[in-house]
């Protein structure tokens, strides 16, 4: 075989290889283009879905902002009403306290001609309480037999009658026609210190309103300690305590004040806590209410506050969404 034949035989192979090479390249490029088009379509679909979802989110945010603005407006109105009600409650509470003080004063004045007698056994008075008291008070208190005490009416305290003999008998209330005679009876009873009926000791005191009597009872322990220490004291109306110490006289306005000072002086007395009713606590809570988020002058509300807060909320949401936004110019 010659060199020419060898070349002829080899040429078809080379031509074939050269002719098939472009076909293979075109096939590979087509596949790449199809793949790119698929990716682009997916990106477009993804962006379209994102736009739709963002539009829905914006719509929901807009509705939420509207609801927030409405809620803030209603909260503002509620706070304004609360401030007005707080002021009204304080006024009404003060007015109620004033009315109660006047009522207690009127009740005390209505009872100033009365005395209350403790310790007389039940049914000892019989059917005529007035005559019984006339005879009861004259001899022990040293009144002349012909003295007229001028007791208008008398009766037992209006509480259920005790059924057991070990229970304390009900007190007797007597009204005098003369205030001076009533005061004379009280004065003589205090001078005597001890008065008896059939060997049973009884006590005579003013007829106080229940509210004042409750406050005066709080001094019982303090007065007992003062008696043991032989310290002179008085209990002025309505519910005070005047103590004559060696270093001077003190007038206490409440049992809390009295027991605190007596304890500081070394008296073995239990300190009575100051009364703190539910109304006082509720009033204190109302007085400490502070409106959050703005300053008030009186109860005035800034009219454009809600739109401003709405705009601020929208700005905050936009800033948060910026974190999820794609960078159009990546590095």
TrEMBL record:
Against InterPro entries, the record matches this protein to:
Transposase_22
Residue stretches of biased makeup (Basic and acidic residues): 317-331
- Coiled-coil residues: 47-109
Q: Which domain of life is it from?
A: Eukaryota
Q: Does the keyword Magnesium apply?
A: no
Task: State the UniProt keywords alphabetically.
Answer: Coiled coil
Gene3D superfamilies on file: L1 transposable element, RRM domain
Region spans: Disordered:
298-331
Name used for this protein in its record? LINE-1 type transposase domain-containing protein 1 ES cell-associated protein 11
């Amino acid at each position: 075989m010659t060199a020419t034949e060898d070349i002829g035989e080899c040429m078809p192979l080379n031509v074939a290889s050269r002719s098939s090479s472009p076909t293979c390249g075109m096939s590979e490029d087509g596949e790449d283009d199809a793949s790119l088009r698929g990716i682009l379509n997916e990106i477009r679909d993804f962006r379209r879905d994102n736009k739709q979802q963002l539009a829905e989110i914006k719509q929901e945010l807009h509705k939420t902002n509207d609801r927030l603005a409405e809620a803030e407006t209603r909260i503002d109105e509620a706070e304004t009403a609360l401030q007005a009600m707080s002021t009204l409650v304080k006024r009404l509470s003060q007015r109620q306290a004033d009315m109660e003080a006047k009522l207690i004063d009127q009740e005390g004045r209505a009872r100033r001609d009365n005395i209350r007698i403790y310790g007389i056994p039940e049914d000892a008075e019989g059917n005529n309480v007035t005559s019984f008291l006339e005879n009861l008070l004259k001899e022990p208190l040293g009144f002349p037999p012909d003295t007229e005490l001028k007791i208008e009416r008398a009766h037992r305290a209006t509480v259920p009658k005790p059924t057991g003999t070990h229970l304390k008998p009900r007190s007797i209330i007597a009204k005098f026609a003369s205030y001076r005679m009533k005061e004379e009876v009280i004065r003589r009873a205090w001078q005597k210190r001890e008065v008896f009926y059939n060997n049973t000791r009884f006590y005579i005191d003013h007829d106080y309103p229940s509210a004042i009597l409750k406050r005066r009872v709080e001094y019982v322990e303090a007065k007992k300690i003062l008696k043991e220490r032989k310290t002179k004291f008085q209990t002025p109306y309505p519910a005070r305590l005047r103590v004559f110490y060696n270093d001077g006289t003190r007038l206490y306005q409440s049992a809390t004040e009295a027991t605190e000072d007596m304890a500081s002086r070394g008296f073995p007395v239990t300190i009575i806590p100051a009364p703190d009713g539910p109304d006082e606590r509720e009033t204190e809570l109302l007085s400490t209410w502070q409106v959050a988020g703005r300053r008030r002058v009186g109860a005035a509300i800034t009219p454009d506050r809600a739109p401003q807060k709405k705009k601020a909320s929208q700005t905050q949401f936009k800033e948060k969404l910026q974190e999820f936004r794609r960078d159009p110019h990546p590095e």
